[in-house]
Amino acid sequence: NINNIHQEIAALRMIKSSDEIDNIKKAIKITNEALNNVLKNIKSGIYEYEVVADYNYILGKHNVEPSFDTIAASGHNATVLHYVENNSVIPKNSLMLFDLGVNYSNYASDISRTYPVDGKFTPRQKEFYELVLKANKETIKMLKPGVTWKEFNDYAKDILSSGLIKMGLIKEKEEISKYYYHSIGHFLGLDVHDVGVYNVALQAGMVVTVEPGLYISEEDIGIRIEDDILITENGSINLSIDIPKEIDEIEKLMK
User: Fold this and answer.
1) Full-prediction pTM beyond 0.85?
2) Which of 49, 123, 159, 191 measures 20 to 30 Å from 172, CA to CA?
């Protein structure tokens, strides 16, 4: 008899060994270094692909490849999910959304950061950014064994919808789908969207992403903040905590 053992293999891949976790950590470390090079060189008036070249330069120095097609989306492009053309001129005073990763020894990192291209967030950009950052940080705090994907997906969505209601952008929580139209995350490992079963509760040894976002098309504002999280016996560890995401950290690095 021939049996399909996909579920068994998927179950094995969902729980990472210490060596697998080390490879993901190394991928994240290179991603951080490459993003720091981006922060030094990003500015309005140049092409998005020029900033991608600054990212790829660091990857080349480490002899590694991206784990997927780099998203470097400025201005209105940042409101388009999975924009990968990266061929527009970066508009003045816009935000630029990066979704990118590194493949290290076959293991992937997957990070999203959003930067003000001219070094400072406008008050309006800051308002949206702080809301997405709150959803990112508060959701990460709740991750531990036993929590389900639905629970932390709904939790993040609730933070975003409550914030947009306060800002007057929507009136009902269900309207959040106009500005946030993807799930909170996915498994991470050998593949960027690694195999796994999403109707099971989190377990120690899983590595997942947390990536809330807001996409305000009418204001040309797209923001996503994504971290790679290891579930532990007692909670979770943010493996990408060293990659700056606080407003003051970002603005300081861009001076």
Assistant:
1) yes
2) 123
